[in-house]
Write a structure and sequence with these properties.
This protein is α+β, with helices and mostly antiparallel strands and 439 residues long. It contains 14 helices and 20 strands. The strands form 5 sheets. Strands 16-13-15-14-18-19-17-20 form an 8-stranded antiparallel sheet, with helices on both faces. A 5-stranded antiparallel sheet has the order 6-7-11-9-10. Strands 3-5-4 form a 3-stranded parallel sheet, covered by helices on one side. Strand 14 and strand 15 form a beta hairpin. It starts with 11 loop residues before the first strand and ends with a helix.
């Protein structure tokens, strides 16, 4: 997904196109030993080190002017343990490849996000999640991980082995070391019945608690400048499978959600005044539909329209107020927002810097088409999110710093103390980590 110039010190650019960096050197290790050697060499040369996945973060979390580690040779499944129902996978494996490989083995992750271009380590290290009543985050499905630390040693962490590292490194931001392998809990592949249908925003907000409680996975998209939403519920099904037909799938997912939507974004960028009218048409274009398929074909969808995104996790009970405030702000602001707002939920988990750490959460994600000025909208949205003690997604645009995070994460100090122990010389430091974790 990221465009990478060739050569020893090419320019690296993220998918969103808003982060560009020139590392001093790039290393593509073919084994954990080679990666550990590259880490030791960087320390000797006085260079910082960052691993970079597929560049799907909108923050500069993976940026470095030192040594950039590319994981594309560290891919594939290492081990499947059918007794324990776990799969161990190399850190550079894209989620897409993992999902397809697991399905071939008759297995699946319990939950996942809606994009599968990211590497497993990039996705988990930034706290990527889907939506769910009982499960949401990818990191919460990790049962063990392997980490190369600043001195080049390889640590295995789980609830039994190095448990204090395990408690933090599942969402480690690349600050504790470089993840080289991840063990996920898996289950026998199952079917999900999806139901997508339009619903007025007021009704969704009035019934939000019920919709969340009655469905294993509930999410909705609200279209700014309208009172319309598109809701999606996914629930386990005994079958039979009823996949989206090829023609219908192409029409809804490619033509409407990517093709026409992309055209609408281009028009909106050129003529902001047309955005409310476009939003009214867009929000009614997708009709209700139902289909049943294996999980990754239901949870994930192609995203071909480039955008920039901010997403915050607010306490679940604050969701309705947050959304009403967001709508009121858009209505009175004169802003022209051509991208729907995505709302998902997650149960509390036990990971130090997970956005759902120790609290049931709702996620509100705001997007803007790439190349459209987004600062005014994101600044106004962020003001609303932070008033509710929101926690930003580590891989998406935000302006928060360590002082703020110390307030909204009860275990922030535990994470930074562990970092002091594992990386005292800040080998894995960069500007972004300096801001969000402090010195």
């Amino acid at each position: 997904m990221s465009s990478t110039a060739s050569g020893k010190s090419g320019t690296w650019r993220n998918w969103g196109g808003n982060v560009t960096v020139r590392p001093a050197r790039e290393v593509t290790p073919a084994s954990v030993d080679e990666l550990a050697a590259a880490v030791r060499q960087a320390a000797e040369d006085g260079l910082k080190v960052k691993a970079v996945g597929s560049g799907h973060s909108f923050t500069a979390i993976a940026a470095t002017d030192g040594v950039s580690i590319r994981p594309q040779l560290l891919t594939g499944i290492r081990n499947i343990d059918r007794k324990a129902m776990t799969v161990t996978v190399e850190a550079g494996t894209p989620l897409k490849r993992l999902n397809i490989a697991l399905a071939r083995e008759g297995l699946s992750l319990t939950n996942m996000g809606d994009i599968m271009e990211q590497t497993v380590s990039g996705a988990t290290s930034t706290g990527t999640h889907g939506t769910g009543r009982e499960s949401a985050s990818l990191a919460a499905q990790i049962t063990a991980l392997e980490l190369v630390t600043a001195d080049g040693s390889v640590l295995t962490c789980s609830e039994k082995e190095n448990p204090e590292v395990f408690a933090a490194a599942r969402v480690g931001l690349g600050a504790l070391g470089i993840v080289t392998a991840i063990t996920f809990a898996v289950e026998p592949v199952f079917l999900l019945a999806a139901r997508e249908e339009p619903m007025p925003l007021d009704r969704v907000l009035a019934e939000f608690d019920q919709l969340r409680a009655e469905n294993e996975h509930f999410e909705f998209y609200w279209f700014p400048h309208t009172d319309n939403t598109n809701t999606k519920r996914n629930n386990r099904s005994a079958g039979p499978p009823q996949p989206v037909g090829q023609l219908a799938g192409w029409f809804e997912d490619e033509f409407l959600s990517n093709g026409v939507f992309h055209a609408a974004q281009l028009v909106g960028r050129a003529m902001p005044g047309a955005v409310p009218a476009i939003a009214r048409i867009s929000s009614t274009a997708l009709s209700a539909r139902a289909y049943t398929d294996i999980p990754y074909k239901v949870f994930t969808s192609p995203r071909r329209v480039p955008f920039v995104e901010m997403e915050y996790a607010v306490p679940r009970e604050a969701l309705v107020d947050t959304l009403r405030e967001l709508k009121a702000m858009v209505d009175r602001s004169g802003l022209r927002i051509n991208f729907p707002v995505e709302v998902r939920t997650a149960p509390a988990d036990d990971i130090a810097l997970s956005t759902a750490s120790a609290r049931d959460s709702a996620y509100v994600a705001v997007h803007m088409f790439r190349g459209t000025p987004y600062q005014a909208y994101f600044t106004a949205a962020e003001r609303i999110f932070t008033a509710h003690e929101g926690r930003p997604h580590w891989g998406k645009v935000h302006t928060r710093d360590a002082d703020y995070f110390a307030e909204v994460y009860p275990r922030f100090g535990e994470f930074t103390a562990l970092r002091d122990r594992l990386d005292p010389n800040r080998l894995f430091q960069n500007d972004y980590l300096r801001r969000v974790l402090g010195q």
